[in-house]
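call fold(seq) -> tokens
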Amino acid sequence: MIPRLSGPLLPPASGTAKHAVVLLHGYGSDGNDLIGLGQMWSPHFPDVLFVSPNAPEACAVNPGGYQWFALDLDRVADDRRLAGALAARPAIAQFLDDLWTQTRLTPEQTVLAGFSQGAMMALHTGLSLDRKLAGILSFSGALLRPENFPQPQAIRPPVALIHGEFDPVVEPNLSREAEAALQAAGYDVRLHVSRGIGHSISTDGLEAASAFLRRTFGTV
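ret:
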């Protein structure tokens, strides 16, 4: 049975939701972590509903947090990440379907975003859907290609990749490789590398993400 996800939700400041941003947290964290991005963005995007579901599993090394998939250090990183993403994807897809049913918003009005392991899930899930998202936003992530990659031309969403130059947890080259793969497949993709930054979201990275949202939601 596919687990139903839940987590903190920030209603649109205007009172009317015209768009949604779904924020997927990193390994060992929870939805309360990334909903902070929504709190920063809300004054600038008053018609956006922000929601950050908790991952379906308790984190193996931090019982107070959650994981999209286990680290499983006995396996090669690429193999464990892809296997984990395949297992976690149905729960995120179900969450999106439920969100669209409850809010009457559409995939075309929704940005799927994430940090670290959550960014991997945002890319993997968003690039597997049979309907076009408004966009995908990846902070410190990696491309775990779904089996149907690339999507048909008509449903390929724009993608923004943001990564710290000196990230010791998720190698910055993984976002560079994702950019190359997405470009080769015909996606509209932009990469921003935050100079001197590790495994975190810097001020310039946040501004690059904000610019992506403005373009995506037509508020430039």
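The chain has five helices and nine strands.
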